[in-house]
Amino acid sequence: MKKLVTYYRLSKEELSKVIFPTKEQVRNAFISVILVVTVIALFLALADFILGSFVSSIL
């Protein structure tokens, strides 16, 4: 039982050291991720279209 109490106390102490992001930081990170994913998806779609057209013209 003593180990459990010690574990709980240490966990609570470590959790008090955590710095959680603000709403603005979360929103900015979300927008950045969506933007990067969209750009990469568009690039891959363009590359697929170009390479597909190239292979189709060869065959």
Automatic annotation (TrEMBL):
Q: What domain of life does the native source organism fall in?
A: Bacteria
State where the protein is found.
Answer: Cell membrane; Membrane
Q: What positions belong to coiled-coil segments?
A: none
Main localisation: membrane
Pfam family, any one: SecE
Provide this UniProt record's keywords sorted from A to Z.
Cell membrane, Membrane, Protein transport, Translocation, Transmembrane, Transmembrane helix, Transport
Annotated membrane topology is: Single-pass membrane protein
Q: Where are the transmembrane segments?
A: 29-55
Per UniProt, subunit arrangement is: Component of the Sec protein translocase complex. Heterotrimer consisting of SecY, SecE and SecG subunits. The heterotrimers can form oligomers, although 1 heterotrimer is thought to be able to translocate proteins. Interacts with the ribosome. Interacts with SecDF, and other proteins may be involved. Interacts with SecA.
HAMAP family in UniProt: SecE
The family line of this record is:
Belongs to the SecE/SEC61-gamma family.
Q: What does this protein do?
A: Essential subunit of the Sec protein translocation channel SecYEG. Clamps together the 2 halves of SecY. May contact the channel plug during translocation.
Under what name is this protein listed? Answer: Protein translocase subunit SecE
Q: Which organism is it from?
A: Helicobacter turcicus
